[in-house]
Amino acid sequence: MSTRLSQTDHAQQFLEEASGNLNDGGNPRTKALVYRILRDTVNIIEDLEVTPEEFWKAVNYLNELGKNQEAGLLVAGLGLEHYLDMLMDAADVEAGKTGGTPRTIEGPLYVAGAPLSKYEARLDDGTDAAAPLFMRGQVRDTDGNPLAGAIVDVWQANTGGTYSWFDPTQSEFNLRRRIETDAQGNYRFRSIVPSGYGCPPTGPTQQLLDQLGRHGQRPAHIHFFISAPGYRHLTTQINLSDDPYLHDDFAYATRDELIAEIRFSDDQQLARELGVQGRFARIDFDFELQVAAAPVEQKRMQRVRALED
Asked: Is residue 200 exposed (0-12), middle (13-18) or buried (19+ Cβ within 10 Å)?
């Protein structure tokens, strides 16, 4: 087509009408976003000569994505969730907010309301045969001062790569806990060594990744929300140092400062002292929080989460 239809007055008027810009009702922000989405979409259709068959295939893909509840997985796999972190990092640098443990993606699998313990907790319910993991550390500010009463909200996958609540075969809040740090800002917990995992192999996310020539694997990792009164809320995760996908995470969550050294041991005397048998692992990892410049910075970003009001 020699003439770009999207640039004609008629098409421009049509997009304004379709996005609600020609009426006084609705939400202005929603209208602005929808108009931009429509405008960019028709430009893609024209620029790449998208056929009707390709268009309806894409529509069906969105239906499948919703049916499988994989939208959150796809935005991670396409790097969009990581890009939000990049934007927030850049804004922090511009505002002079530096230091502390870096953020990384939350992912779609948090569940609110995990049991709260003081100083220490056991995350697993004892049904997984994985090697026990003992993790400990300190929460402090960027000047090195310990933060007593900070909350370490932790969640991880089992050896099958699935998460409780989303996996109905697991017990309630398995591998999920909140831990309040002691007077020295310390926390510790017993868990299992998590496994890396991949996207559902027949799901829509992996189907698209196959078309891109990409895998859908994540390295073994553990998620955290770290919070304390007067300090910026931190959303982060650690990736385990021995995983083959450590620097090839399909969700782009690995950051050098968040690589946790996992140390395996066959010391049976120490195992008995820890209350386990056989091989076990240990991780030491500290978190540093920035001072909050405003109360809103102390809260986690609003989004839909399981069991969260």
From this structure: middle
With a CB cutoff of 8 Å and minimum separation 6, the contacts of 122 are: 177, 189, 190, 191
Query: In this structure, what token pair is assigned to residue 84?
Result: 């939000």
Residue 18 lies in a domain: no
Residue 163 lies in a domain: yes
Count structural domains, the chain: 1
pLDDT tens-digit readout, 15-39: 999 999 999 999 999 999 999 999 9
218 within some domain: yes
Closest CA relative to residue 87, chosen from 69, 64, 66, 103:
103
Handedness of CA 167, 79, 257, 302 (dihedral sign): negative
**Any bridge partners for residue 231, and if so which?**
291
Confidence (pLDDT) at 309: 87
Contact by Cβ (8 Å): 252, 80: no
Distance CA 206, CA 227 (A): 34
Query: Is residue 91 assigned to a domain?
Result: no
Residues 6+ apart with CB under 8 A from 217: 196, 197, 198, 245, 248, 249, 250
The encoded tokens of residue 115 equal 């049991």
Q: Which residue has the tokens 């895998």?
A: 215
Residue 261 identity (one-letter amino acid): E
Query: Which stretches in the chain have pLDDT values below 70?
Result: 1-2
- Residue 105: CATH number of its domain: 2.60.130.10
Amino acid 151: pLDDT: 98
The C-alpha atoms of residue 73 and residue 207 are separated, in whole angstroms, by: 12
Give the pLDDT of residue 1. 56
The predicted pLDDT at position 24 comes to 97
pLDDT of the residue at 209: 98
What pLDDT score does 176 carry?
98
**DSSP letters for 172-233:** TTTTEEEEE--TTSEEEEEEE----EE--TTSHHHHHHHHTT---EE-SEEEEEEE-TTB--
Host domain of residue 215: 101-298
